[in-house]
């Protein structure tokens, strides 16, 4: 089983496929930049205005006006622009996976494939290092039907754990902000007017952003948990069914459809959170992939022994 059984580890680092990853990464980064600007407009600025209004009560009315205005404008503008970039990025990443995994493009789920001009334009805007070894290289010893599932499961599990940690951070941040606002109002013995204009009004877009962010991240998390469960069941079915490539192709295509739908709709996670957790996430992904490869090798050996005795 030491001889390479599929071309995924080698082909994922070819210039054409690396260009797909560069283009998708550039578009996802734009989504995250928009999300960061959105967070600054709805969280950071209202916080600053709230502090300024407490120190200078004469601007409390303007602080309240901005906070309520951004709470209305936020969902009307930011969401639609982010959605456009996410769909384009998801389609380009789908091209990468379909090419690499030898899967047919599903027009019904994914729409039309992105045209070369769009891919080239997005890839030209990427400024990072090439995404070499996007998927675990240990899968080289597995046949395509199994290697593909290991890659798909790795993609799902990576995103799942990242979002679990981010949701806890959001909830913790929301509690801290609420406690600080309550303590400040209590200690300073503020009038009802100042509490409403300098604390409650600025809190509206902040609470709106936190609640929406937690809700959307939970929706993404629920979808990922279902995908991981399906990937685990599919993995054991593929090992059990052996060389039924057609059944494995149908399973991977169904899983890939759901992965695409998740990518085009998921709420982005800021790069600094990704970079903070990247090392541990990569180690966990590699360990899980190695374990699946060992499980597959053992299953192959047991199957060969069974055939040899019959």
The main sheet comes to: none
Sheet/helix structural class = mainly alpha
> H/E element string?
HHHHHHHHH
Number of domains: 1
Mean pLDDT across the residues is 85
Number of helices: 9
Helix content: over 70%
Spans of at least 5 consecutive residues with low confidence? none
Total DSSP E strands: 0
Radius of gyration, CA atoms, in whole angstroms: 24 Å
First CA to last CA: what distance?
22 Å
Overall 3D form: elongated
Beta-strand content: under 5%
Account of the protein in words:
- With 310 residues, this protein is an all-alpha fold.
- It starts with 7 loop residues before the first helix and ends with a helix.
- Helix 2 runs antiparallel to helix 7 and helix 3 packs parallel to helix 7.
- The protein has one domain.
Keywords:
310 residues, mainly alpha
Short description:
The chain has 310 residues and is mostly helical. The protein is built from 9 helices and no strands. The chain has helices at 8-11, 15-55, 60-101, 107-110, 116-124, 144-188, 192-241, 245-265, 271-308.
SSE topology:
Elements: H1 8-11, H2 15-55, H3 60-101, H4 107-110, H5 116-124, H6 144-188, H7 192-241, H8 245-265, H9 271-308
Helix pairs in contact: 2-3, 2-5, 2-7, 3-7, 3-8, 6-7, 6-8, 6-9, 7-8
């Amino acid at each position: 089983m030491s001889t390479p059984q599929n071309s995924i580890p080698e082909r994922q680092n070819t210039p054409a496929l690396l260009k797909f990853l560069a283009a998708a990464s550039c578009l996802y980064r734009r989504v995250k930049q928009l999300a960061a600007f959105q967070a600054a407009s709805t969280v950071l600025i209202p916080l600053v205005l709230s502090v300024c209004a407490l120190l200078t009560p004469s601007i409390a009315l303007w602080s309240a006006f901005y906070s309520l205005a951004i709470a209305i404008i936020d969902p009307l503008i930011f969401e639609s622009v982010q959605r456009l970039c996410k769909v384009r990025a998801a389609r380009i990443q789908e091209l990468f996976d379909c090419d690499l995994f030898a899967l047919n493009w599903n027009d019904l789920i994914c729409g039309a494939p992105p045209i070369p001009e769009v891919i080239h334009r997005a890839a030209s805007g990427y400024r990072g290092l090439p995404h070499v070894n996007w998927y675990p290289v240990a899968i080289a010893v597995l046949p395509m039907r199994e290697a593909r599932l290991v890659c798909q499961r790795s993609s799902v599990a990576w995103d799942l754990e990242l979002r679990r940690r981010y949701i806890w951070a959001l909830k913790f941040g929301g509690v801290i902000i609420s406690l600080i606002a309550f303590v400040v109002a209590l200690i300073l013995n503020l009038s009802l007017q100042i509490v409403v204009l300098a604390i409650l009004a600025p809190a509206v877009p902040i609470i709106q952003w936190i609640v929406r962010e937690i809700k959307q991240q939970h929706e993404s998390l629920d979808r990922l948990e279902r995908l991981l469960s399906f990937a685990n069941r599919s993995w054991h079915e593929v090992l059990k069914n052996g060389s039924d490539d057609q059944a494995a192709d149908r399973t991977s295509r169904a899983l890939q459809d759901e992965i695409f739908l998740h990518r085009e709709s998921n709420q982005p996670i800021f790069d600094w959170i990704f970079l903070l957790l990247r090392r541990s996430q990569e180690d966990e992904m590699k360990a899980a992939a190695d374990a699946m490869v060992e499980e597959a090798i053992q299953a192959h050996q047991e199957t060969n022994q069974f055939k040899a005795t019959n």
